[in-house]
Design goal:
By secondary structure, the chain is mainly beta. It has a 4-stranded antiparallel sheet, with no helix packed on it. The chain has a 3-stranded antiparallel sheet with strand order 1-2-5. It is elongated and about 50 Å long. The mean pLDDT is 94. This is Late embryogenesis abundant protein LEA-2 subgroup domain-containing protein.
Length: 141
Amino acid sequence: MGGFVWYASTDNPELEKVEVVLQDVNVLDVNRIEDNARLQVTFLVSNPSAKTFTVPVLSYDLYADGEHIGAGVYSTEDVAMPGRAAFYAGAEIPLKNIFRLSSNAVDSALYDSIIAGESLNYSASGRITVETAWSIVEKDF
């Protein structure tokens, strides 16, 4: 059993090379009755390693002009590994997620700027989980 665990962990340094960049944030629609908006958050995930992997979870905190506006999760955990996007060596794949923003979660002026589609400095921090048939690695970004 110990040999199997050792063998599986040899992938870990390669999997830890995964790169995550917040690529884009767009307003999809605004619900003025319920005072919330749906944003599409796109992360560009790159695989500079030689190992193929999938991404079951990417959890993140989203910021607009330095102010925390909420947390989100991209998840394919309910999809079997063969059905997930495969990140082959050198692959860059955009992962899109719907983020729900409530008007009472942020300052009203910032909320108005976001839903108006004004040019804001968006950033994100979080954790990505990458998985092969043998290993699972979590990496902060």
